[in-house]
Amino acid sequence: RLEKACLYSPGSPYSGPVKQVSGYGHIGDGNLHLNIVTDRFDDRVTRIFEPYVYEWVASHRGSISAEHGVGLMKRDYLSYSKPPAMIDYMKRIKALFDPNGILNPYKVL
Fold first, then answer.
1. Is the pLDDT of residue 37 over 80?
2. Cα separation of 106 and 109, whole Å?
3. Please, which residues bridge with residue 32 across strands?
């Protein structure tokens, strides 16, 4: 999708703002981190790449996780890998341990 949007073209003198896409992670738990290197911020990269990643994860029965909680940026993508009942349980557990919302501020889960 990045290539189709002219945001990335490996091997080309002009490759758009995206210079490199790489993944690294934890082999034991299958956790993957993606790193997209750009020469400047371009909101199109986020708008194109994030839905692709979440769709791919869902199509492979993967899961979206967040080591430090799920904030506002990932909130709308949880439904790609978690059913509504699971999200509700996650919210209830957070509310049980953090009724005042002070332990992990600005995180919805």
1. yes
2. 9
3. 25
